[in-house]
Design a protein that fits this description.
Elements (H helix, E strand, L loop, with lengths): L16 E6 L3 E5 L33 H4 L2 E4 L13 H4 L6 E3 L10 E5 H4 L16 E6 L18 E4 L6 E2 L3 E5 L13 E6 L8 H9 L5 E4 L8 H8 L2 E7 L10 H7 L5 E5 L3 H4 L9 E2 L6 H13 L1 H5 L8 E5 L3 H13 L11 H4 L2
Parallel strand pairs: 3-4, 3-5, 5-6, 6-7, 7-8, 10-11, 10-12, 12-13, 13-14
Antiparallel strand pairs: 1-2, 9-15
Helix pairs in contact: 4-8
Bound molecules: 2-acetamido-2-deoxy-beta-D-glucopyranose (NAG) (5 copies).
Length: 364
């Protein structure tokens, strides 16, 4: 899709290019060539803070009067209501009126439609005529492999909102926040080697096959359905004991880098061993020395050998945490955060968006 090139995310070497994603607190940064040193050159602008997001040249300041947009959530995502907080409190931006009450349809400036909740039939989309200036936003955080009936969505939407970087409203699973000042990093003690939490156990999947090979050479503790149970309340304390975490995605798509990395691995200070899109794609989100990619090795056997080496050499293992002296991983955004970010993006004047008529061709 050629629209990808239009994003301000076309990264070049020697630059830490930034996009202030969640301003006033949560800044997203994207990496390219941090790999040489693992930290930004002195003199390189600190991502997210000194580099405000590129504004279109002809953009106007936000007009107070019209910033209180009415945003209708066509459904609660997956049918589960949540507290809609004031965006001034969530992101420190002018508030929008966000409601799931469909009586507001005619007055809504934007309607956010969560894919899964309408995917069973085109009749689940709003049927009333669309007010002239109303925008429909297609919202989806699932991968294309888990997004049925995309064809129903063609030619209906004005903006996209997903984990893909080329979405009009970019909603990633996690981002890196730049710390206000460098910090000393102390890696918490670890007593175990490799963990994996998996619920969807598909014998024919790439990730299970890879695991079957890996476990011939390495002890992997597997949790989840069909394996050792791991209640949510124990997740963090359990995974924190491990040096490594297998962040194996269930489907391979560009930018589909999920809470498996952000929540299970980074939050627990376990080095993610990733299976997903290519390494370069991960490096758009996180420093090159923050994770191990299975493609870094010709075979599972070689990967196992490397993990054993790191296990024996503390200095080398700890080098996977150096980036934490200047970055903090932030994951697990709430729906309130996602929708307030949508509110902020929709408040931008002029509102620029790409309009993807054939969603099913774009979202692959
Ligand atoms: C924003 O608009 C909603 C709906 O019209 C209204 O109820 C609310 O009071 C407005 N908020 C502000 C801060 O103007
Ligand atoms: C939906 O909004 C309408 C118009 O403001 C209001 O009359 C109605 O009580 C609301 N319904 C619910 C369930 O809040
Ligand atoms: C939004 O998309 C619909 C369907 O493609 C189109 O008819 C409408 O003009 C668009 N609205 C705006 C404000 O761009
Ligand atoms: C980090 O460690 C250095 C050297 O041990 C020490 O001088 C400095 O105060 C520490 N900084 C913080 C923020 O703890
Ligand atoms: C551990 O790794 C470091 C850094 O890669 C290396 O310099 C050192 O020689 C290694 N130590 C051992 C005992 O292999």
């Amino acid at each position: 899709m050629d629209s990808k090139g239009q994003q301000p995310l076309n990264l070049t070497c020697r630059k830490v290019v930034t996009l202030a994603l969640f301003q006033l607190g949560l800044s997203a940064i994207f990496f390219t060539c941090v790999r040489m040193s693992g930290k930004p050159d002195p003199g390189t602008p600190v991502p997210g803070t000194l580099h405000p997001p590129k504004q279109p040249v002809n953009s106007l300041p936000i007009e107070r009067r019209s910033s209180n947009l009415t945003i209708l959530l066509w459904t609660w995502p997956f049918g589960i209501p949540f507290a809609i907080e004031r965006c001034s409190q969530v992101l420190g931006i002018p508030d929008c009126y966000i409601t799931a009450n469909r009586s507001w349809y005619r007055k809504a400036d934007a309607v956010i439609v969560h894919h899964r909740d309408v995917s069973s039939s085109p009749k689940r989309l709003p049927q009333e005529p669309r007010p002239a200036s109303q925008r429909w936003v297609w919202f989806n955080l699932e991968s294309p492999s888990a997004s049925p009936n995309l064809g129903f969505m063609d030619n209906h939407f004005n903006l996209t909102m997903s984990y893909r970087r080329d979405s009009d409203i970019f909603s990633p699973y996690g981002t890196m926040e730049v710390l206000p000042r460098p910090q000393n990093v102390t890696v918490p003690p670890k007593s175990k080697l490799v963990a994996w939490v998996v619920s969807n156990w598909d014998l024919h999947s790439h990730r299970v096959k890879y695991y079957e090979e890996l476990k011939k050479y390495l002890q992997v503790d597997v949790y989840g359905r069909h394996h050792s149970p791991l209640p949510d309340s124990k997740r963090f304390s359990t995974l924190s004991q491990y040096k490594f975490y297998l962040a194996f995605e269930n489907a391979i798509h560009e930018d589909y880098i999920t809470e498996k990395v952000w929540r299970n691995a980074f939050r627990s200070w376990a080095v993610p061993v990733v299976l997903g899109p290519p390494r370069e794609n991960y490096e758009n989100y996180m420093p090159p020395d923050s994770f191990i990619h299975i493609h870094d090795f010709p075979s599972a056997k070689e990967l196992a050998k490397f993990l054993h080496e790191l296990d024996r050499n503390t200095t080398r293992y700890q080098s996977y945490f150096h980036w934490r002296s200047w970055l903090k991983p932030v994951g697990q955004f709430t729906y309130a955060q996602h929708f307030c970010k949508a509110c902020r993006d929709l408040q931008k004047k002029p509102l620029q968006y790409q309009t993807v008529p054939a969603l099913s061709k774009w979202f692959k």
